[in-house]
């Protein structure tokens, strides 16, 4: 597969249908919509403030350590249990900061950007796979393990790349999806 050819075609596309055709043409597996369904809701800073007032979130923007003592719905209990079991408590801080529009430290950049997306669907979703694909586009290098310095170097470049192409700018989630899927594919090789 010629990735140079893939990116040349991607950057010259005029509509989403053309972009969708790249999945088949380059044998890129689509994102599993059961694992990653579209997120239709948004979360506002006011909603986070309400959670703080109710004692669910602390002033440090993390889930309160007393949350298991509160009246919770079964769904809230289930989601909290998953966070707890995966050791993911405190990662919410980066998402909440993103919702508030506060930039994260370099360790929380992916979750922070996801928080920005949850608050504003015009924001892209950027993770290791997207950055990996973008580095391939910019440098021709395949990088398996994305590190903090890669985000620092390429994060803003990716956002600018999206915003400087009208089709990409108006369809960020579609571009994020194909870059995510391509990044996953090239990680394997």
What does this structure look like?
With 189 residues, the protein is mainly alpha-helical. The protein folds into two domains: 3-37 and 123-187; 45-119, no CATH class. 58% of the residues lie in helices and 0% in strands. The protein has helices at 3-12, 16-25, 45-53, 74-85, 92-100, 109-119, 128-139, 148-163, 166-169, 172-187. Helix 5 crosses helix 6, helix 7 crosses helix 8 and helix 7 crosses helix 10. The longest helix is centred in the C-terminal third of the chain and has 16 residues, at 148-163. The mean pLDDT is 93.
Broad shape: elongated
What's the N-to-C terminus distance?
12 Å
The radius of gyration computed from the alpha-carbon positions, rounded to a whole number of angstroms, is 18 Å
The ordered H/E elements are: HHHHHHHHHH
Jot down its keywords.
189 residues; mainly alpha
In short:
The protein is an all-alpha fold. The protein contains ten helices and no strands. It folds into two domains: 3-37 and 123-187; 45-119, no CATH class.
Could you give the topology of this structure?
Elements: H1 3-12, H2 16-25, H3 45-53, H4 74-85, H5 92-100, H6 109-119, H7 128-139, H8 148-163, H9 166-169, H10 172-187
Helix pairs in contact: 5-6, 7-8, 7-10
